[in-house]
Design goal:
With 474 residues, the chain is α/β, with parallel strands linked by helices. The chain has 18 helices and 18 strands. The strands form three sheets. The chain has a nine-stranded mixed sheet, sandwiched between helices. A six-stranded parallel sheet has the order 15-14-13-16-17-18, sandwiched between helices. A hairpin with a 2-residue loop joins strand 9 and strand 10. The N and C termini lie close together (11 Å).
Length: 474
Amino acid sequence: MKVLATASEIFPLVKTGGLADVMGALPRVLAKQGLEVRTLVPGYPAILAALTDAEPVYALPTLHGGSARVLAGKAAGLDLFVLDAPHLFDRPGNPYMGPDGRDWPDNPQRFAALSRVAADIGLGAVPGWIPGAVNCHDWQTGLAPAYLALAGGARPRTVMTIHNLAFTGQVPMALWRDLGLPPDSLGTDGVEFYNAIGYMKAGLYYADAITTVSPTYAAEIQTPEFGCGFDGLLRTRHAVLHGILNGLDETVWDPWSDPALPARFRKGHLRGKTKCKAALQTRLGLATDAAAPLFGIVSRLTGQKGMDLVLDTLPTLLEGGAQLAVLGSGDRGFEDAFRTAAAAHPGQVATTIGYDEALSHQLVAGVNALLVPSRFEPCGLTQMMAMRYGALPVVSRVGGLADSIVDANEAALRAGVANGIVADPTQAGLTRALQRALGLWQDQPAWTQAQRVGMAAELGWEASAKRYAEVLAH
């Protein structure tokens, strides 16, 4: 069976978050399930530069302001369709924002074009390659199920995958003609979402099936607290809503073979992790102290990720003799606050603003514990990276964090199943969690046991790939 996947980013070519990691790994594991997957992505400069064996397979004389074509080729071992539309995608900045940090004003047209071409390929625009299913990921591709359903006639099965429901992709209703939407699609039973056109709404309403990236998040988004305004729709569609926990790409995240690390290690051979910690402390200007518990953060610096909770509870860490290493970017206020914390506590707090793939591997390998105190978290991959690299995750009891971490309470420690510390996503909850983590650090046999349980966990994609294959083929 042929499957067209489509998304706005893909690892290792263009990445802003976990969506790219999934798109880089999932096609490979679905191939083991007998599916032939090609991924449609925008023709950003980095993707076009990496594309090999490229050949044009579909021409569009006009597409939202200019001509475009689809190239078929390979990059990073992945089979790709690339939407080569320079007027839409040949520009600096990340996939969604310019160098000034503001959204590109034509994002509605850019991602409508991606959705339109996904629908065209689904309907046979590429000779000899007609997919049996189209798998759309997040709001940027949400119009594709609508275009396919509204076309009428035979079409492939459509599956909409939610990575983060909070990003709804709302655009002004006045754009409906420009987006090629018929008037009868503009109501509540269609693409309308709070008096605007909702790209995510379109995908959730018109897709044949919906998946999201953890079982707990699938349940949470059917409630007003986590549903972002979609909870009523998702409750009506619960029979086709599937929560499938993300996996970790263990070819990329393997401390025994990771080329970014100054020393390699694995469960039962942890001397290399001690060397990674010392190297990280030296690189970041932290005191080189093996006895000090080193906590880390690799995250977007936003309120959703609980960064205000970290700042509020920082005294608990520092008074407990711990260190903190932060890598990320996001809201300017949080960036400045973590810079200020580092300046106020030299040798104990280090802050690196920005994205650095190699440093993210070195940080996860070097820290003793990784903080993921999100207020909501569809799945989360950093807690899985932490487990694989021998760092105890300290996480909130939400979404995929709750599905993947077993709290180190007394019963779980006695049973030998604990692999992290789970907290309520509040200042009081995180304070208690940090105090428990500091206490566990003082009991090194118990800490090491939890560390090794995490390193031994089955974190790969195999089981989840089978679920995806079932949903795509149903």
